[in-house]
Amino acid sequence: MSDKITIAIDGFSSCGKSTLARELARELHYVFIDSGAMYRGVTLHAIRTGCIVNKEINRRMLIHSLESIQLKFQLNPETKIPELILNGENVEQQIRTLEISNFVSPVAAIKEVREILVAQQRTMGLSGGIVMDGRDIGSVVFPNAELKLFITAEMSIRVERRYQELLYRGMKSSRKEVETNLTRRDHIDSTRKESPLTQTEDAIVIDNSEMNREQQLEVALELVEKAVTYLA
Ligand code: DC
């Protein structure tokens, strides 16, 4: 039996899920998939093709345009981080803007969008050895994942992390704008009808408010070891 497990990481926005997932995958030589990037890719495509105009989403047009979206990940040879490719174009930078963050939650609440992306995510995880982060990974995408983590952190810390990330990427914003966006997304993501963000009963909670990246990774690696030992 392969000792490569499936690791599902869920939680609210900007809790450090993707950072943890990426570092875990690097340590374990697993595949890392940032499922939020896929929802961001669909949102970027929707804006570019006129499915979102004057802050209004044309739901029918967007659902129709799903046929013309091809998403995949490609490893950046320098950073070793998988980057999102939308219809052949690397859009890793474009999907991280506050504009995309402002529209992505309503787009991700659309049933047809979720059906297509969840099917693709399941295919990516068929052979195990995957760390995927998102909102519905432990509850819907991989309900049988051997390890499920639910990441939380205090709002002020999440705001600061996202604000610094945007600054690092050269994008202008304010802490207030970031906090408004996070609060709104948390609300939409956890109250939507289609697979809302929930903490499953078998998920282990990690509050990383007081942890640095190394400490968070260490805690998670211990949990992976336990999960793998339990299976052996
Ligand atoms: O992780 P992120 O902030 O990049 O995710 C962007 C949005 O996509 C988030 O507001 C909710 C949505 N999302 C989702 O509904 N399900 C997932 N598995 C991942 C993200």
Short summary:
With 232 residues, this protein is α/β, with parallel strands linked by helices.
Question: What would you note in describing this structure?
Answer:
The chain is an alpha/beta fold and 232 residues long. It has one domain: P-loop containing nucleotide triphosphate hydrolases (Rossmann fold, 3-Layer(aba) Sandwich). 49% of the residues lie in helices and 18% in strands. The protein has helices at 17-28, 35-48, 59-65, 98-108, 111-124, 137-141, 155-168, 175-191, 213-231; strands at 6-11, 31-34, 52-53, 56-57, 71-75, 82-86, 89-90, 130-134, 147-152, 204-207. Strand 6 (82-86) and strand 7 (89-90) form a beta hairpin. Helix 1 packs across helix 9 (213-231), helix 2 crosses helix 4 and helix 7 (155-168) crosses helix 8. The model has no long low-confidence stretch (mean pLDDT 95).
Could you outline the blueprint of secondary structure elements for this entry?
Elements: E1 6-11, H1 17-28, E2 31-34, H2 35-48, E3 52-53, E4 56-57, H3 59-65, E5 71-75, E6 82-86, E7 89-90, H4 98-108, H5 111-124, E8 130-134, H6 137-141, E9 147-152, H7 155-168, H8 175-191, E10 204-207, H9 213-231
Parallel strand pairs: 1-8, 1-9, 2-8, 9-10
Antiparallel strand pairs: 3-4, 5-6, 6-7
Helix pairs in contact: 1-9, 2-4, 2-5, 4-8, 7-8
Question: How much of the polypeptide forms β-strand, as a percent range?
Answer: 15-25%
Number of domains: 1
Low-confidence stretches are none
Bound molecules: 2'-deoxycytidine-5'-monophosphate
Order of helices and strands: EHEHEEHEEEHHEHEHHEH
What is the annotated CATH architecture? 3-Layer(aba) Sandwich
Provide the structure class: alpha/beta
Helix content: 40-55%
Ends apart, CA distance between termini: 8 Å
The major β-sheet equals: 5 strands, parallel
Mean pLDDT: 95
Supply the CATH class. Alpha Beta
Total strands: the figure is 10
What is the count of helical runs? 9
Main sheet: strand order: 2-8-1-9-10
